[in-house]
Write a structure and sequence with these properties.
The protein has helices at 2-59, 93-104, 116-124, 145-160, 211-286, and strands spanning 78-83, 110-114, 166-176, 179-188. It has 287 residues and is an alpha/beta fold. It has one domain: 3-Layer(aba) Sandwich (Pyruvate Kinase, Chain: A, domain 1). The longest helix is centred in the last third of the chain and has 76 residues, at 211-286.
Length: 287
C-alpha cells in the first residue's frame, strides 16, 4: 500500500510542476497577443489604404494593362509561401496550415516555408519536393521589416523573370481569440477588387502620373506591406492558439490533480484503516 501512496504522490508532484510550466506559457502568450494585436491594428490600417490605392490604380490603367496584373503565361509552377511557427504547443495551428496547402498546391508547385515547423514538415513531406529556401532565415520573433522588404523585392524580380505563374502567401487569419482561419492570399499578380463610388463614372480620380507609372513605383512598398501584415496576423493567431492550448492543458491538469488527490486520500485512508486493524488484531492476540 505504501508503494501505491508514494507513486500517486509522485504523480501529483509531476502534474503540479507541469501545470506551472503551462501557466507560465499561457501568461507569455497573453503578453505577446497584446503586442501583436497592437502591431496588427496599426499595420492593417496602412495596408488596407495601400490596397485600396493599388486597386484604384489597376482599375484606371487605361493602357493594355501592366504585367503585374496578370499571371505569367506558360506552364509555370505556383509559389506558395507557407507561414508556420518556430515553436510547438500551439494546438492545431500548424496542422491547419499544412492541410490547407495540401488542398491548394500540386506536386509541381514550389513551397517556400517560413518557420521551423514548416521547414521540418516539408523536409519529410514527399508530396512536395520543390522547396524554396529563401525565407528560412526570416525571424518570426522579431519580424524585421527591412528584411521583409528585401524578400518582397526578390519575389517581384522572380515574377519578372517568369519563374512562377502566381505567388501566394498561405497564412492563418486571426478572427477572434478562439477562431483562426488558414487563408490563401495572392501577392502576384495583383488582383484586388475595386469598389467604385457612386459618381466615379462622371468624376474619375485624378493622378499626377499615369497609373502604370504609379503602379511600378508603389509595387515594392505594396508587396512589403501586405507580406508584413500577413506575417503579423499569423503571429497573432499563433499566440492566441497557444494560449488556448495552454488554458485547456491547465484545465486538464486541474481535473487530473483532483482525481489523483481523491485517489491518494482513499489509498491513505485504506492504509490507516489497515494499520489500525493490524494493531487491534495484535492486541487481541496478546490478551
Amino acid at each position: 500500500m505504501s508503494l501505491g501512496l508514494a507513486k500517486t504522490k509522485r504523480r501529483i508532484s509531476t502534474v503540479k510542476n507541469t501545470e506551472k510550466i503551462t501557466k507560465s506559457m499561457e501568461l507569455i502568450a497573453t503578453v505577446k497577443i497584446k503586442r501583436f494585436k497592437s502591431e496588427s491594428a496599426k499595420e492593417s490600417l496602412y495596408t488596407h489604404e495601400l490596397e485600396d490605392l493599388m486597386a484604384e490604380l489597376f482599375a484606371h490603367d487605361s493602357e493594355t494593362g501592366t504585367h503585374y496584373g496578370r499571371p505569367n503565361a506558360g506552364d509555370l509552377p505556383f509559389l506558395f509561401i507557407v507561414i508556420s511557427s518556430d515553436l510547438g504547443l500551439c494546438g492545431g495551428y500548424n496542422n491547419g496550415i499544412f492541410k490547407a496547402v495540401e488542398k491548394m498546391a500540386t506536386s509541381k508547385d514550389i513551397i517556400a516555408p517560413i518557420g521551423t515547423k514548416a521547414l521540418h514538415h516539408y523536409a519529410h513531406d514527399f508530396n512536395f519536393k520543390n522547396i524554396n529556401h529563401d525565407f528560412e532565415k526570416l525571424s518570426l520573433a522579431s519580424l524585421d521589416f527591412p528584411e521583409v522588404h528585401r524578400l518582397s523585392l526578390g519575389l517581384k524580380n522572380d515574377f519578372n523573370a517568369q519563374k512562377y505563374a502566381r505567388i501566394y502567401v498561405v497564412f492563418t487569419r486571426y478572427v477572434n481569440s478562439i477562431t483562426f482561419t488558414p487563408t490563401r492570399f495572392q501577392l502576384l499578380p495583383v488582383q484586388i477588387p475595386h469598389q467604385k463610388w457612386d459618381r466615379e463614372e462622371y468624376c474619375p480620380p485624378l493622378f499626377d502620373e499615369k497609373p502604370r507609372e504609379l503602379i511600378h513605383t508603389l509595387l515594392p512598398s505594396y508587396l512589403a506591406a501586405v507580406f508584413y501584415d500577413r506575417l503579423v496576423d499569423s503571429q497573432l493567431s499563433e499566440q492566441a492558439s497557444r494560449r488556448t492550448a495552454m488554458d485547456n492543458a491547465n484545465d486538464n491538469a486541474d481535473r487530473l490533480l483532483s482525481n489523483l488527490t481523491i485517489q491518494y486520500n482513499k489509498a491513505r485512508q485504506n492504509a490507516i484503516t489497515q494499520e489500525i486493524t493490524e494493531v487491534v488484531s495484535g492486541a487481541g492476540d496478546n490478551s
